[in-house]
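User: I've been going back and forth on whether these two constructs are worth ordering. Before I decide, could you fold them both?

Assistant: Sure. I'll take them in the order you sent them. The first construct and its C-alpha cells:
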Amino acid sequence: MPIAPLAALSLLALLFAAAPAQVRAERGDRSLPLTIEADKQSTVDLARQVVVFNGKVVITQGTMRITAERVEVRETPEGWRSAVATGQPGQPATFRQKRDGLDEFIDGRAERIEYDSRADTVRLRGNATLRRLRGSTPADEVSGDLITYDNVNEVFSVGGDGGGRVRAVLTPREAAASAPPAGTPR
C-alpha cells in the first residue's frame, strides 16, 4: 500500500534523524578537484562563469559522481559551484556519493539533477528515485517527482508533482532485522 506524502516525509525524517552525526557524505570530497569529462564539444562563457558539457558527461569529486547527457556548471565569485545535469529519453542523469565512515552510498537517478555545493544539496526532478545502499544492497528507497537530499542534515524530502504520489521502501536496521519479533520467546 503506497504511503501518503506527509507520512512518507515523516518516516524519512525519523529514519535519518536517528543516524549518528558522523554519517555524512565523505568529508574529504569537498576539498578535492571537480573533474568533468564529456564526449562532445563544450562551451565556456567566461563572462557569465558558465560551462556547458555535452555527450556522456561524467563529473567526479572524490566519491561523488554525476553522469548525464548534458551538464551546465556555474561558479559564483565566491567559488561555489552549481550544476544542472539532464539525461536523455530512456537514460536518466545519475548521482552517487559514499557516506562518511560507512560502507554505504547514496544513489539517485532522475530526468534532471541539480547540485548546489554551497547548500550541499542535490535535487532530483522528474521520475526521480534515491536509494541508500549498504555495500551494493539497497537499504532504503524513495521515489517521486521531486526528491531533495540535504547532505548537511542527512534528510531526504520527496514530493509528487501537483499532488502526485510518492513511494518509500524502508528496510529495518541490521540489529532490528535479526531480533525476534516482540513477544516471541527466545
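The second construct, handled the same way:
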Amino acid sequence: MNEKELPFKEYYGEEYVYTQTAQYGILPHYSSLPNGIKISIEYAYKKNKIKAVACTSTLAQGVNIPIKYLLITGTNFSATKMSVRNFQNLIGRTGRSGVYTEGNIIITESKLYDDRRGRGYYKWKETKGLFDGDAVEACGSSILNIVRDYAVTYEVKIPGSEIVNYICQNITDNKWTNKLLDKILDEINETDKIKYYRQQIFEQLCSYRDSINSIENEMIYFLSYYPLTQTVNLLHEISNKLIENTLAFYLASKEEKILLRKLFDAIESKIEGQIGGIQKYVGTMISMADADNIIRWIEDNSINTDIRTTKELLDLIENLFAEMYPSLNLKNGFALSWILGNSYEKMSKEYEIKIYDIEKLCQYNVSYQMSFLVGNIIDLVDAECVNIAALKLLQQALRYGVNTKTAKNIQKRK
C-alpha cells in the first residue's frame, strides 16, 4: 500500500476512488474533506510532493499554494454564477511570483463555447465578462437584497415590496420561509422547472431569514445594556440608529429605504412583544423562536437539575436537533458514530448513505450545526446547571469527532 493511500484507506476504504487515485499523486481538496487530510494535501502540494489536486475554488482562493495550470470546469455553482471578484482572486493565484514565470487558466466546459450563439449566449457573455480586467463589482448588502426585486427565472420576477410585505405580515410565524417558498413556486407555471428552482429559491429565502435574525440579535444586544424600564422607550431609537448605520441604508434608493424601515419596524414590533424577557436571548446568535424552543426543551427534560450521562444528553439533543432542523435529515445514532471515530466506509454501510453525503453530514450537520446547537444550550441553561461540564465536553466531541480529552486537545491546537 502506497503511503499516500493510507489516510484515505482508513477513512474511505480500499476500494474508494480517492484511495485509488492517491497512488497516482492525484488528490482531492474541498470543504467537507476531513481536516487532517486537507492540511496534509496542502503541505504536500506546497512541497511539490504531488502534481495535481482536484479541488473546489476554495483551495486556490484561501491557501497560498503555487499553481501553474488552473483548470476550471465551470463558472456556475449550483444556480449561482461566479462573481467577478472571486474569479479575479482565483486566477490571480496562478503563475505565483518566485515560483513560476507564467500561469495558465483553462475553462474546460466545452458546451459553453458550443452554445455561445444559441441558448447559451448569455452564459457565454457572462463568462467572457469575467476575463475583463477592468470589470469591477459594486459592493452589495445581504439586508438590501431582501427589499430588492428577486429574479427567480428570466420570466419570473418577484417585486421586493411583495417580499417585504409578506415577511412583515408573517414575521412571528417560524415557518414563513417555507410558506413564502410555496407562494413563489406557484408563480412558476412550468412544472418541470419547479424542482430545479426549489432549492435555489429556498436558499435565497434562508439568506433573508438569516439577515433578519441578525438584525433581531443586534437590536436585542443593544437593548441589553439598559434597565428593563427603559427598553420599551429606547427600542425605536435603537432601531433607527441601527438601520441608518447599515450599508444597506446607504446604498438604498428612496423607495428601498421605505421598505427597509418597514422591515425594521416589523422586527422591532416582534421584539417589543417579548420585551420582558430579552435578557435570556442576549448572545445566543439565534432567533428568539429558536431560543424559546431550546428553553422549553431544557425545562421539559430537567437539564438544569437532573444529572445525565453523556449518552443520555446526546440522545435528547439528537431529538431536539431533528425537531429544529428537520431538513438536515440526521438519523438517530449518527452523531455517536462520528464521535466514536468510525470510518466513513463503516458509517456508509451502517446507515446506507453514500460516502459523499456522509462527509457532509459529519462536517456540517454534526461538527458545525449540532455543536452550535449544544453551544446555544450551554448559553441558555442556568448558571448552576448540573450538566454544564458534560455539555461542554459533548460540544467538543461533536465538533472534532473524537471521544477522549487528549484527542480533543490535539484537535483544538490544529
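Notes on the second construct follow. Strands lie at 26-29, 52-55, 69-72, 76-77, 80-81, 104-107, 150-151, 157-158. The mean pLDDT is 85.
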